[in-house]
Amino acid sequence: MQTIDKFNFSGQKAFVRVDFNVPLDENFNITDDTRIRAALPTLKKILNDGGSIILGSHLGRPKGPTAKYSLKHILPHVSKLLGVDVQFADDCIGTQAKEKSAALQPGQALMLENLRFYAEEEGKPRGLAEDAPEEEVKAAKKAVKESQKEFTKTLASYATVYVNDAFGTAHRAHASTALIAEYFDVDHKLFGYLMQNEIDAVEKVMKNTTRPFTAIMGGSKVSSKIEIIENLLTKVDNLIITGGMTYTFTKALGGKIGKSICEDDKLDLALSLLAKAKENNVNMVLAVDAKIADDFSNDANTQFVAVDKIPDEWEGLDIGPKTEKLFAEVINKSKTILWNGPTGVFEFENFTHGSRSVGEAIVEATQNGAFSLVGGGDSVACVNKFGIADKMSYVSTGGGALLEFIEGKELPGIKAIRGY
Ligand code: AMP
Questions:
Q1: Which residue has its alpha carbon closest to ligand 1 atom 18?
Q2: Judgement on whether residues 328 and 372 belong to the same structural domain of the protein
Q3: Across the chain, what does the average pLDDT equal?
Q4: 151 and 55 within one domain
Q5: One domain, residues 192 and 228
Q6: 314 close to 293: Cβ distance less than 8 angstroms
Q7: Boundaries of domain holding 146
Q8: In the listed set 173, 196, 219, which residue is the last one of a domain according to the structure?
């Protein structure tokens, strides 16, 4: 397999799929440019080698060409960060894109307009009525799949090498994230640095694991984490279940949870996960106490109680001090740590303590030689909020993509390049 370190981009035109789907305010100012910065090592390597770049990305969820979702808004900032004046093609498959990509010289870069202005990028039909007859839906799906081939081929025609550095969309089999790879031979398709680092971090945790391996799964609902938990139960030594999920488990075990968040239709599932943990010799760690509130608000009255003795009308919004200590002891003995999801409603300042203590325990374990991977949305927000992101071994940029990767699924964006 070709790798970015080995590849010399001199004289090459690289189609680089990036994830520049950044948040913008109402004046189209970028409010968080992390995703652009994350792609810079790859882009700079290509330019420094003497190659040129054709940047492809999506922004938002447009249903067709929409000024609001134009990538033109971010062009000045990308130029500034990259240190070159990035050109722009106002249509990703139009004449401008073809002519400007053909005229690109070494050291130059061109950004294509939002790929998702075309339904062909995702390969899903648009504009169908909700009650459209099945035949019509079938025909529309077939038509878009057909035109997707031409779309993909056109994108591929601009370049001599394909680079995928968009980990955030690696779980999608879209034209620019996966299908395009078919048009390049095995020596001319490769992962960018960001993508490679993400893959290496997940594989270090899930495949080449140094034990003990502890996963900390938080968040609100068991139902959204079932597949991950099931896969982790075949891999980890310790599984800490925390956040809102705690109360479904506590209720299933016969505890009183007051009006804490709970999925009543998942009580049997919680018990079967506990049984599976036992069968697999996995130490499943649940909270023993909770910080409870008499209202779902930052200013609610609070008290600490045993997790299975929550009075009616009260709800658990974070873990208590005994649980913090229990979790920290497990984390401190670990050599591999995966953290996904807060221990409580960390958006409320008064319920951040548990998540902060887990974060600090992971920092300490990392300083003592453990490998720590944090990812999947809210735990990334946590480590950023607590200012400890740079003390983790790796903080993933992927939300859904990371979760599917941990579930053990094949990601189309990865498979298209390395074959698995
Ligand atoms: P998820 O998106 O599934 O990772 O869940 C993250 C969300 O879970 C955050 O918005 C938290 O506020 C929420 N959460 C964590 N603990 C609780 C809890 N005890 N009660 C209600 N929501 C919670």
A1: 244
A2: yes
A3: 96
A4: yes
A5: no
A6: yes
A7: 13-196
A8: 196
- What's the pLDDT tens digit per position in 342-360? 999 999 999 999 999 999 9
Q: Which of 216, 217, 220 to mutate to test the pocket of ligand 1 (most atoms within 8 A of CB)?
A: 220
Which amino acid would we find at residue 272?
Answer: S
378 in ligand 1 pocket by Cβ < 6 Å? yes
Please check whether residue 15 is in contact with residue 161, taking contact to mean a CB–CB distance below 8 angstroms. yes
Active site residue 400: yes
Catalytic residue among 35, 235, 251, 385: 35
- By CB neighbour count within 10 A (0-12 exposed, 13-18 middle, 19+ buried), where does 69 fall? buried
Helix (H) or strand (E) holding 15: strand 13-17
Task: Confirm whether 61 is a catalytic residue.
Answer: no
Task: Evaluate the CA torsion angle 300, 305, 306, 309 in order and state its sign.
Answer: negative
Residue 285: inside a domain: yes
**Is residue 418 one of the residues assigned to a domain?**
no
- Shortest-distance atom of ligand 1 to CA 242: 16
- This prediction has a pTM of 0.92
Q: Indicate whether 157 and 226 sit together in one domain.
A: no
The 10s digit of each residue's pLDDT in 301-327 is 999 999 999 999 999 999 999 999 999
Q: How many domains does the chain have?
A: 2
Nearest residue by C-alpha to atom 13 in ligand 1? 220
